[in-house]
Design goal:
The protein is an alpha+beta fold. It has 2 domains: 76 residues, Elongation Factor Tu (Ef-tu), domain 3 (Beta Barrel); 82 residues, Beta Barrel (Elongation Factor Tu (Ef-tu), domain 3). It has 5 helices and 13 strands. The two termini are 33 Å apart.
Length: 221
């Protein structure tokens, strides 16, 4: 079962354990989220996981080999904090942006700079994802919905306001070394716009002129 998230973190949990299970692993996450339900979806640092077992003070979930290879869940230190968000219920409030919990790749912390009581952080993004990152657009970093402040090549920046630093694990960003990895999920709308343009340019389908004009007026093309 898969859920939809908003990138608004509910709680900072902790990775308690990670044990190998074949090519994958089972992780134990400590949290106070309640009531938890077997089979429900929870975003753990931006990765959609299914609750496989409810344990005292948290839950267990299984990670596939692909999840471990494509996200930080395979390397994050035991005891480290993780951002948690339960799937949005039908009719629930969408306070951030649409986040699927399917991590697109890992970004790299390039630099940090204090701006008053906020912090500007520059991230390196894999080249294949760079085209989906737009200034003033949305991106999920370790499951946190953020607005892209600026973009330059394969690099983008965000500004972490005090509330974000307090309520998420990104608050400890100053203690994280440059070069550290984070989970990135690009805005799903950017993916669909890019695909629409690709199909139109390849001549595989006719392009609806009025739709393209509407996208242009909205700033997506």
């Amino acid at each position: 079962m898969r859920g939809v998230f908003t990138g608004l973190v509910e709680e900072k949990g902790a990775l308690r354990a990670r044990s190998a299970r074949g090519p994958g692993a089972r992780v134990t996450v400590g949290c106070t989220l309640a009531p938890l339900v077997l089979g429900e979806s929870i975003s753990v640092d931006g990765v959609c996981l299914t609750v496989a077992s409810i344990v005292a003070g948290g839950f267990e979930a299984d990670c596939s080999h692909e999840t471990l290879a494509r996200t930080t869940l395979g390397t994050v230190a035991i005891g480290a904090g993780v951002n948690l968000e339960r799937a949005v219920p039908l009719g629930g409030r969408m306070g951030g942006h649409i986040v699927s919990g399917h991590v697109d790749g890992e970004g790299t912390i390039e630099s940090m700079q204090a701006i008053g009581d906020a912090v500007r952080v520059d991230f390196g993004v894999p080249p294949e994802l760079a085209r989906y990152v737009a200034e003033k657009g949305s991106i999920a970093v370790n499951g946190v919905s953020l607005t892209v402040n600026s973009v330059s090549g394969n690099r983008f920046s965000v500004v972490l306001i005090p509330h974000t630093r307090e309520k998420t694990t990104l608050g400890a960003i100053a203690a994280i070394a440059t070069g550290s990895k984070v989970n990135l999920e690009v805005d799903v709308l950017a993916r669909y716009v890019a695909r629409l343009l690709e199909v139109g340019q390849a001549g595989q389908a006719s392009t609806d002129a009025s739709l393209m004009e509407s996208l242009a007026r909205a700033g997506f093309t």
